[in-house]
Write a structure and sequence with these properties.
Strand content: 5-15%
Helix content: 55-70%
CATH architecture of the largest domain: Up-down Bundle
Number of helices: 13
Radius of gyration: 38 Å
CATH class of the largest domain: Mainly Alpha
Distance between the termini: 65 Å
CATH superfamily of the largest domain: Outer membrane efflux proteins (OEP)
Structural class: alpha+beta
CATH topology of the largest domain: Outer membrane efflux proteins (OEP)
Number of domains: 2
Length: 467
Protein backbone atom coordinates (compact mmCIF):
# COMPACT_ATOMS: atom_id res chain seq x y z
CA UNK A 1 0.00 0.00 0.00
CA UNK A 2 2.79 2.38 0.93
CA UNK A 3 4.65 1.52 -2.28
CA UNK A 4 1.59 2.30 -4.36
CA UNK A 5 1.22 5.68 -2.62
CA UNK A 6 4.88 6.54 -3.35
CA UNK A 7 4.41 5.64 -7.00
CA UNK A 8 1.36 7.89 -7.22
CA UNK A 9 3.40 10.79 -5.88
CA UNK A 10 6.58 10.03 -7.83
CA UNK A 11 4.86 9.83 -11.22
CA UNK A 12 3.57 13.44 -11.38
CA UNK A 13 6.83 14.73 -9.90
CA UNK A 14 8.84 12.91 -12.58
CA UNK A 15 6.46 14.20 -15.24
CA UNK A 16 6.95 17.78 -14.07
CA UNK A 17 10.76 17.37 -14.06
CA UNK A 18 10.67 15.88 -17.56
CA UNK A 19 8.59 18.76 -18.89
CA UNK A 20 10.87 21.25 -17.15
CA UNK A 21 13.92 19.70 -18.81
CA UNK A 22 12.21 20.10 -22.18
CA UNK A 23 11.44 23.75 -21.45
CA UNK A 24 14.95 24.81 -20.38
CA UNK A 25 18.08 23.73 -22.27
CA UNK A 26 21.61 24.52 -21.01
CA UNK A 27 23.89 26.80 -23.04
CA UNK A 28 26.74 25.08 -24.88
CA UNK A 29 29.46 26.27 -27.27
CA UNK A 30 32.42 24.32 -28.62
CA UNK A 31 35.07 27.05 -28.61
CA UNK A 32 37.90 24.66 -29.46
CA UNK A 33 36.31 23.74 -32.78
CA UNK A 34 35.21 27.28 -33.56
CA UNK A 35 38.72 28.70 -33.07
CA UNK A 36 40.63 26.02 -34.97
CA UNK A 37 42.82 27.74 -37.56
CA UNK A 38 41.47 31.14 -36.53
CA UNK A 39 44.55 33.04 -37.67
CA UNK A 40 47.73 32.36 -39.56
CA UNK A 41 51.06 31.64 -37.88
CA UNK A 42 49.34 30.30 -34.76
CA UNK A 43 51.44 28.14 -32.49
CA UNK A 44 50.54 24.58 -31.54
CA UNK A 45 51.55 24.91 -27.89
CA UNK A 46 50.32 27.18 -25.14
CA UNK A 47 52.48 30.30 -24.86
CA UNK A 48 52.15 33.57 -23.01
CA UNK A 49 50.51 36.06 -25.32
CA UNK A 50 51.49 39.74 -25.34
CA UNK A 51 47.89 40.50 -24.39
CA UNK A 52 48.77 39.50 -20.81
CA UNK A 53 51.17 42.47 -20.59
CA UNK A 54 49.74 45.41 -18.67
CA UNK A 55 49.24 48.46 -20.87
CA UNK A 56 51.55 50.51 -18.62
CA UNK A 57 54.35 48.07 -19.43
CA UNK A 58 53.52 47.84 -23.11
CA UNK A 59 53.39 51.65 -23.44
CA UNK A 60 56.38 52.63 -21.33
CA UNK A 61 56.59 56.30 -22.36
CA UNK A 62 55.60 58.45 -19.32
CA UNK A 63 53.86 61.13 -21.40
CA UNK A 64 51.79 58.51 -23.20
CA UNK A 65 50.89 56.84 -19.89
CA UNK A 66 49.55 60.15 -18.57
CA UNK A 67 47.43 60.63 -21.68
CA UNK A 68 45.98 57.12 -21.49
CA UNK A 69 45.18 57.52 -17.79
CA UNK A 70 43.41 60.80 -18.45
CA UNK A 71 41.48 59.30 -21.38
CA UNK A 72 40.29 56.33 -19.31
CA UNK A 73 39.01 58.73 -16.66
CA UNK A 74 37.40 61.36 -18.90
CA UNK A 75 36.55 59.86 -22.29
CA UNK A 76 32.85 60.30 -22.99
CA UNK A 77 32.44 56.98 -24.82
CA UNK A 78 33.80 55.10 -21.81
CA UNK A 79 31.56 57.01 -19.41
CA UNK A 80 28.54 56.28 -21.62
CA UNK A 81 29.41 52.56 -21.71
CA UNK A 82 29.71 52.54 -17.90
CA UNK A 83 26.32 54.24 -17.63
CA UNK A 84 24.77 51.48 -19.77
CA UNK A 85 26.45 48.87 -17.58
CA UNK A 86 24.83 50.42 -14.52
CA UNK A 87 21.45 50.26 -16.26
CA UNK A 88 21.99 46.57 -17.08
CA UNK A 89 22.89 45.91 -13.44
CA UNK A 90 19.57 47.39 -12.31
CA UNK A 91 17.64 45.17 -14.73
CA UNK A 92 19.52 42.15 -13.37
CA UNK A 93 18.49 43.04 -9.80
CA UNK A 94 14.91 43.27 -10.99
CA UNK A 95 15.11 39.79 -12.60
CA UNK A 96 16.45 38.39 -9.31
CA UNK A 97 13.55 39.84 -7.37
CA UNK A 98 11.05 38.22 -9.77
CA UNK A 99 11.84 34.84 -8.21
CA UNK A 100 10.44 35.92 -4.83
CA UNK A 101 6.85 36.61 -3.72
CA UNK A 102 5.39 40.08 -4.06
CA UNK A 103 3.69 41.91 -1.17
CA UNK A 104 1.49 44.98 -1.49
CA UNK A 105 -0.21 47.09 1.14
CA UNK A 106 -3.49 48.83 0.49
CA UNK A 107 -5.80 51.01 2.56
CA UNK A 108 -8.96 52.92 1.76
CA UNK A 109 -11.82 54.56 3.58
CA UNK A 110 -15.10 56.20 2.68
CA UNK A 111 -17.60 58.50 4.38
CA UNK A 112 -21.16 58.72 3.02
CA UNK A 113 -24.60 59.97 4.02
CA UNK A 114 -27.90 58.36 2.91
CA UNK A 115 -31.20 60.27 2.75
CA UNK A 116 -33.78 58.99 5.25
CA UNK A 117 -36.56 59.68 2.73
CA UNK A 118 -34.82 57.99 -0.19
CA UNK A 119 -34.31 54.56 1.37
CA UNK A 120 -36.54 53.03 4.04
CA UNK A 121 -33.76 50.59 4.94
CA UNK A 122 -31.23 53.33 5.60
CA UNK A 123 -29.37 52.92 8.88
CA UNK A 124 -30.19 55.24 11.69
CA UNK A 125 -26.52 56.08 12.28
CA UNK A 126 -25.34 58.44 9.58
CA UNK A 127 -22.98 59.31 8.09
CA UNK A 128 -21.57 55.84 7.33
CA UNK A 129 -17.82 55.20 7.76
CA UNK A 130 -16.29 52.30 5.78
CA UNK A 131 -12.61 51.48 6.52
CA UNK A 132 -10.37 48.78 5.04
CA UNK A 133 -6.70 47.79 4.91
CA UNK A 134 -5.11 44.70 3.42
CA UNK A 135 -1.85 42.93 2.59
CA UNK A 136 -1.85 41.16 -0.78
CA UNK A 137 0.83 38.57 -1.56
CA UNK A 138 1.50 36.80 -4.86
CA UNK A 139 4.04 34.26 -5.98
CA UNK A 140 4.55 32.65 -9.36
CA UNK A 141 6.16 29.24 -8.88
CA UNK A 142 9.03 28.87 -11.34
CA UNK A 143 8.22 25.25 -12.20
CA UNK A 144 9.55 25.39 -15.77
CA UNK A 145 12.52 27.66 -15.10
CA UNK A 146 11.09 30.66 -16.95
CA UNK A 147 12.00 33.19 -14.28
CA UNK A 148 15.41 31.62 -13.69
CA UNK A 149 16.14 31.75 -17.42
CA UNK A 150 15.07 35.39 -17.49
CA UNK A 151 17.51 36.05 -14.64
CA UNK A 152 20.30 34.28 -16.54
CA UNK A 153 19.48 36.31 -19.63
CA UNK A 154 19.79 39.56 -17.68
CA UNK A 155 23.02 38.33 -16.11
CA UNK A 156 24.44 37.59 -19.57
CA UNK A 157 23.28 41.00 -20.80
CA UNK A 158 24.99 42.68 -17.85
CA UNK A 159 28.23 40.75 -18.49
CA UNK A 160 27.95 41.60 -22.17
CA UNK A 161 27.80 45.29 -21.32
CA UNK A 162 30.70 44.88 -18.90
CA UNK A 163 32.77 43.32 -21.71
CA UNK A 164 31.64 46.18 -23.96
CA UNK A 165 33.04 48.64 -21.42
CA UNK A 166 36.37 46.83 -21.52
CA UNK A 167 36.27 46.70 -25.33
CA UNK A 168 35.68 50.45 -25.37
CA UNK A 169 38.65 50.94 -23.04
CA UNK A 170 41.01 48.75 -25.09
CA UNK A 171 40.00 50.56 -28.27
CA UNK A 172 40.49 53.90 -26.52
CA UNK A 173 43.99 52.93 -25.33
CA UNK A 174 44.84 51.83 -28.86
CA UNK A 175 43.52 55.07 -30.37
CA UNK A 176 45.41 57.25 -27.89
CA UNK A 177 48.67 55.36 -28.45
CA UNK A 178 48.19 55.44 -32.22
CA UNK A 179 47.59 59.20 -32.27
CA UNK A 180 50.50 59.80 -29.88
CA UNK A 181 53.01 57.99 -32.07
CA UNK A 182 51.54 59.73 -35.10
CA UNK A 183 52.48 63.02 -33.42
CA UNK A 184 55.97 61.71 -32.67
CA UNK A 185 56.31 60.74 -36.35
CA UNK A 186 55.25 64.20 -37.48
CA UNK A 187 57.81 65.75 -35.12
CA UNK A 188 60.52 63.53 -36.63
CA UNK A 189 59.44 64.41 -40.17
CA UNK A 190 59.48 68.08 -39.25
CA UNK A 191 63.07 67.73 -37.98
CA UNK A 192 64.11 65.96 -41.20
CA UNK A 193 62.40 68.60 -43.33
CA UNK A 194 63.99 71.50 -41.46
CA UNK A 195 67.42 69.88 -41.76
CA UNK A 196 66.81 69.46 -45.49
CA UNK A 197 65.73 73.11 -45.79
CA UNK A 198 68.97 74.09 -44.08
CA UNK A 199 70.94 71.97 -46.56
CA UNK A 200 69.00 73.37 -49.52
CA UNK A 201 69.68 76.90 -48.29
CA UNK A 202 73.40 76.16 -48.12
CA UNK A 203 73.27 74.62 -51.58
CA UNK A 204 71.48 77.71 -52.94
CA UNK A 205 74.23 79.93 -51.52
CA UNK A 206 76.88 77.67 -53.09
CA UNK A 207 75.18 77.78 -56.50
CA UNK A 208 74.84 81.56 -56.33
CA UNK A 209 78.57 81.81 -55.58
CA UNK A 210 79.36 79.46 -58.46
CA UNK A 211 77.26 81.58 -60.80
CA UNK A 212 79.38 84.61 -59.97
CA UNK A 213 82.43 82.66 -61.05
CA UNK A 214 80.58 81.49 -64.21
CA UNK A 215 80.68 77.82 -63.18
CA UNK A 216 76.86 77.53 -63.47
CA UNK A 217 74.15 79.60 -65.08
CA UNK A 218 70.95 81.23 -63.84
CA UNK A 219 68.97 78.06 -64.50
CA UNK A 220 70.94 76.26 -61.78
CA UNK A 221 70.13 79.08 -59.33
CA UNK A 222 66.42 78.97 -60.18
CA UNK A 223 66.38 75.18 -59.84
CA UNK A 224 68.00 75.48 -56.42
CA UNK A 225 65.39 78.05 -55.36
CA UNK A 226 62.58 75.82 -56.60
CA UNK A 227 64.03 72.89 -54.70
CA UNK A 228 64.20 74.97 -51.52
CA UNK A 229 60.58 76.10 -51.97
CA UNK A 230 59.48 72.51 -52.58
CA UNK A 231 61.11 71.35 -49.36
CA UNK A 232 59.65 74.30 -47.44
CA UNK A 233 56.17 73.39 -48.69
CA UNK A 234 56.34 70.18 -46.64
CA UNK A 235 56.35 72.15 -43.39
CA UNK A 236 52.76 73.53 -43.58
CA UNK A 237 51.49 70.04 -44.44
CA UNK A 238 53.26 68.55 -41.44
CA UNK A 239 52.09 71.36 -39.14
CA UNK A 240 48.48 70.93 -40.28
CA UNK A 241 48.62 67.17 -39.71
CA UNK A 242 50.06 67.76 -36.24
CA UNK A 243 47.30 70.22 -35.30
CA UNK A 244 44.48 67.93 -36.49
CA UNK A 245 46.05 64.94 -34.71
CA UNK A 246 46.37 66.96 -31.49
CA UNK A 247 42.71 67.99 -31.76
CA UNK A 248 41.68 64.35 -32.28
CA UNK A 249 43.74 63.27 -29.28
CA UNK A 250 42.25 66.06 -27.15
CA UNK A 251 38.78 64.80 -28.08
CA UNK A 252 39.75 61.30 -26.92
CA UNK A 253 40.80 62.86 -23.61
CA UNK A 254 37.40 64.51 -23.27
CA UNK A 255 38.93 67.98 -23.75
CA UNK A 256 38.48 70.88 -26.13
CA UNK A 257 41.11 71.17 -28.93
CA UNK A 258 44.52 71.91 -27.42
CA UNK A 259 48.23 71.14 -27.78
CA UNK A 260 49.53 67.78 -26.56
CA UNK A 261 52.73 67.22 -24.58
CA UNK A 262 54.88 64.44 -26.04
CA UNK A 263 58.42 63.17 -25.87
CA UNK A 264 60.98 64.63 -28.26
CA UNK A 265 63.57 61.90 -27.73
CA UNK A 266 61.71 58.73 -28.75
CA UNK A 267 63.44 56.40 -31.19
CA UNK A 268 60.72 54.91 -33.40
CA UNK A 269 62.92 51.94 -34.21
CA UNK A 270 63.10 50.81 -30.56
CA UNK A 271 59.38 50.24 -29.93
CA UNK A 272 59.17 46.59 -28.85
CA UNK A 273 61.98 45.15 -30.93
CA UNK A 274 61.66 41.84 -29.05
CA UNK A 275 59.55 39.00 -30.54
CA UNK A 276 55.84 39.43 -29.83
CA UNK A 277 54.17 36.14 -28.90
CA UNK A 278 50.58 35.76 -30.06
CA UNK A 279 49.67 32.51 -28.27
CA UNK A 280 46.92 30.14 -29.39
CA UNK A 281 43.44 31.24 -30.55
CA UNK A 282 41.62 30.06 -27.41
CA UNK A 283 43.82 32.41 -25.37
CA UNK A 284 42.63 35.29 -27.49
CA UNK A 285 39.02 34.35 -26.76
CA UNK A 286 39.70 34.76 -23.07
CA UNK A 287 41.37 38.14 -23.61
CA UNK A 288 39.37 39.95 -26.30
CA UNK A 289 36.44 41.76 -24.66
CA UNK A 290 34.47 42.13 -27.90
CA UNK A 291 34.56 38.34 -28.37
CA UNK A 292 33.39 37.89 -24.79
CA UNK A 293 30.62 40.43 -25.38
CA UNK A 294 29.45 38.50 -28.46
CA UNK A 295 29.48 35.24 -26.48
CA UNK A 296 27.45 36.77 -23.65
CA UNK A 297 24.97 38.12 -26.21
CA UNK A 298 24.61 34.57 -27.51
CA UNK A 299 24.04 33.32 -23.96
CA UNK A 300 21.37 35.98 -23.38
CA UNK A 301 19.51 35.10 -26.58
CA UNK A 302 19.61 31.39 -25.66
CA UNK A 303 18.08 32.11 -22.25
CA UNK A 304 15.43 34.30 -23.87
CA UNK A 305 14.53 31.32 -26.04
CA UNK A 306 14.16 29.27 -22.85
CA UNK A 307 11.86 31.96 -21.45
CA UNK A 308 9.72 31.90 -24.60
CA UNK A 309 9.54 28.09 -24.47
CA UNK A 310 8.58 27.98 -20.80
CA UNK A 311 5.84 30.56 -21.40
CA UNK A 312 3.95 27.89 -23.38
CA UNK A 313 3.68 25.63 -20.30
CA UNK A 314 1.15 25.97 -17.44
CA UNK A 315 1.71 28.83 -15.03
CA UNK A 316 1.21 28.05 -11.33
CA UNK A 317 0.67 30.96 -8.98
CA UNK A 318 -0.29 31.47 -5.33
CA UNK A 319 -2.09 34.55 -4.02
CA UNK A 320 -3.22 35.56 -0.57
CA UNK A 321 -4.96 38.52 1.06
CA UNK A 322 -5.12 39.48 4.75
CA UNK A 323 -6.62 42.56 6.38
CA UNK A 324 -9.47 44.16 8.31
CA UNK A 325 -12.68 45.71 7.04
CA UNK A 326 -15.66 47.20 8.88
CA UNK A 327 -18.39 49.78 8.72
CA UNK A 328 -17.78 52.25 11.50
CA UNK A 329 -14.60 53.06 13.31
CA UNK A 330 -15.62 51.17 16.45
CA UNK A 331 -16.23 47.95 14.50
CA UNK A 332 -12.88 48.35 12.70
CA UNK A 333 -11.04 47.87 15.98
CA UNK A 334 -13.26 44.94 16.95
CA UNK A 335 -10.81 42.09 16.48
CA UNK A 336 -10.92 39.33 15.33
CA UNK A 337 -14.38 40.05 13.96
CA UNK A 338 -13.16 42.63 11.39
CA UNK A 339 -10.39 40.38 10.04
CA UNK A 340 -10.73 38.86 6.56
CA UNK A 341 -8.34 36.67 4.57
CA UNK A 342 -8.16 34.45 1.50
CA UNK A 343 -5.68 32.08 -0.17
CA UNK A 344 -5.88 31.03 -3.82
CA UNK A 345 -3.82 28.66 -5.95
CA UNK A 346 -4.21 29.08 -9.70
CA UNK A 347 -3.07 27.13 -12.75
CA UNK A 348 -3.17 28.79 -16.16
CA UNK A 349 -2.46 26.90 -19.39
CA UNK A 350 -2.42 28.90 -22.65
CA UNK A 351 -4.57 27.26 -25.36
CA UNK A 352 -5.64 29.78 -28.01
CA UNK A 353 -3.87 33.14 -27.90
CA UNK A 354 -3.64 34.21 -31.51
CA UNK A 355 -0.34 32.34 -32.01
CA UNK A 356 1.37 34.96 -29.85
CA UNK A 357 3.40 32.55 -27.71
CA UNK A 358 4.43 30.33 -30.62
CA UNK A 359 5.52 33.34 -32.65
CA UNK A 360 7.43 34.66 -29.65
CA UNK A 361 9.25 31.31 -29.34
CA UNK A 362 10.11 31.11 -33.04
CA UNK A 363 11.36 34.71 -33.08
CA UNK A 364 13.50 33.96 -30.00
CA UNK A 365 15.00 30.96 -31.81
CA UNK A 366 15.81 33.08 -34.88
CA UNK A 367 17.36 35.73 -32.64
CA UNK A 368 19.55 33.05 -31.04
CA UNK A 369 20.66 31.91 -34.51
CA UNK A 370 21.45 35.53 -35.43
CA UNK A 371 23.48 35.93 -32.22
CA UNK A 372 25.43 32.78 -33.08
CA UNK A 373 26.22 34.13 -36.56
CA UNK A 374 27.32 37.43 -35.01
CA UNK A 375 29.55 35.55 -32.59
CA UNK A 376 31.17 33.60 -35.43
CA UNK A 377 31.64 36.80 -37.43
CA UNK A 378 33.31 38.42 -34.42
CA UNK A 379 35.71 35.47 -34.24
CA UNK A 380 36.54 35.76 -37.93
CA UNK A 381 37.13 39.51 -37.59
CA UNK A 382 39.43 38.87 -34.63
CA UNK A 383 41.41 36.28 -36.58
CA UNK A 384 41.71 38.59 -39.58
CA UNK A 385 42.96 41.46 -37.43
CA UNK A 386 45.68 39.29 -35.90
CA UNK A 387 46.69 37.78 -39.23
CA UNK A 388 46.80 41.14 -40.99
CA UNK A 389 48.82 42.73 -38.20
CA UNK A 390 51.36 39.88 -38.23
CA UNK A 391 51.73 40.01 -42.02
CA UNK A 392 52.02 43.80 -42.02
CA UNK A 393 54.72 43.77 -39.35
CA UNK A 394 56.71 41.13 -41.23
CA UNK A 395 56.68 42.86 -44.60
CA UNK A 396 56.96 46.41 -43.27
CA UNK A 397 60.12 45.46 -41.39
CA UNK A 398 61.59 44.13 -44.65
CA UNK A 399 60.54 47.35 -46.38
CA UNK A 400 62.15 49.48 -43.66
CA UNK A 401 65.43 47.59 -44.07
CA UNK A 402 65.60 48.38 -47.78
CA UNK A 403 64.47 51.97 -47.29
CA UNK A 404 67.18 52.52 -44.67
CA UNK A 405 69.79 51.26 -47.15
CA UNK A 406 68.32 53.59 -49.77
CA UNK A 407 68.45 56.62 -47.46
CA UNK A 408 72.07 55.91 -46.47
CA UNK A 409 73.06 55.55 -50.13
CA UNK A 410 71.26 58.76 -51.14
CA UNK A 411 72.89 60.77 -48.34
CA UNK A 412 76.28 59.61 -49.50
CA UNK A 413 75.33 60.34 -53.12
CA UNK A 414 74.21 63.86 -52.19
CA UNK A 415 77.47 64.51 -50.38
CA UNK A 416 79.57 63.21 -53.31
CA UNK A 417 77.48 65.07 -55.91
CA UNK A 418 78.21 68.39 -54.19
CA UNK A 419 81.95 67.68 -54.18
CA UNK A 420 81.85 66.61 -57.84
CA UNK A 421 79.91 69.75 -58.76
CA UNK A 422 82.52 71.95 -57.10
CA UNK A 423 85.25 70.18 -59.04
CA UNK A 424 83.40 70.20 -62.35
CA UNK A 425 82.72 66.46 -62.56
CA UNK A 426 78.92 66.67 -62.08
CA UNK A 427 76.08 68.96 -63.04
CA UNK A 428 73.67 70.77 -60.76
CA UNK A 429 70.94 68.34 -61.93
CA UNK A 430 72.81 65.48 -60.25
CA UNK A 431 72.78 67.39 -56.99
CA UNK A 432 69.08 68.28 -57.32
CA UNK A 433 68.10 64.67 -57.95
CA UNK A 434 70.12 63.49 -54.97
CA UNK A 435 68.55 66.17 -52.77
CA UNK A 436 64.99 65.42 -53.78
CA UNK A 437 65.37 61.65 -53.51
CA UNK A 438 67.01 61.89 -50.10
CA UNK A 439 64.22 63.98 -48.54
CA UNK A 440 61.29 62.01 -49.95
CA UNK A 441 62.90 58.65 -49.13
CA UNK A 442 63.74 59.64 -45.55
CA UNK A 443 60.20 60.88 -44.97
CA UNK A 444 58.89 57.58 -46.35
CA UNK A 445 61.26 55.67 -44.08
CA UNK A 446 59.81 57.37 -41.01
CA UNK A 447 56.33 56.61 -42.31
CA UNK A 448 57.28 52.95 -42.47
CA UNK A 449 58.68 53.04 -38.92
CA UNK A 450 55.39 54.53 -37.74
CA UNK A 451 53.37 51.94 -39.67
CA UNK A 452 55.28 49.17 -37.91
CA UNK A 453 54.43 50.75 -34.55
CA UNK A 454 50.79 51.11 -35.57
CA UNK A 455 50.63 47.42 -36.46
CA UNK A 456 52.16 46.45 -33.11
CA UNK A 457 49.54 48.60 -31.38
CA UNK A 458 46.85 46.89 -33.46
CA UNK A 459 48.23 43.43 -32.65
CA UNK A 460 48.26 44.21 -28.92
CA UNK A 461 44.62 45.30 -29.04
CA UNK A 462 43.58 42.50 -31.43
CA UNK A 463 44.87 39.89 -28.98
CA UNK A 464 42.87 41.50 -26.16
CA UNK A 465 45.58 43.56 -24.51
CA UNK A 466 44.83 46.68 -22.53
CA UNK A 467 42.40 45.65 -19.76
Amino acid sequence: METLRIKKIAFPVALVLLMASCAVKPFKTDLGVMTKGLYRDSVSVDTTTIASINWRDFYADPDLQKLITQALDSNLSVRLAINRLQQAAQYYKQSEAALFPTLNFGADGSLSNISKYGNSLAPKVVPITDLKWSLTAGWELDVWGKLNSAKKAQMATMLQQKATVEATRTQLISNVASAYYQLVLLDKQKQVTMQSIENYTKYLSMVQSMKKSAQVNEVAVLQAKAQLASASAYLPQIELSAVTTENYLAELLGNAPSSIVRSDSLDLTLFHTEPLHIGIPVQMLRRRPDVLAAEYALRASHEQFNVATAAMYPQLSLTGVFGTEATGIANWFNLPGSIFWSAVAGLTQPIFNGRALRTQREIAKLQETAALLTFKQTLLNAGSEVSNALASMHYLQQQATYQKQQVDALKTAYKYSQELLMNGYATYLDVLNAQNNELSTELSLYNTYNNIIQQKITLYRALGGGW
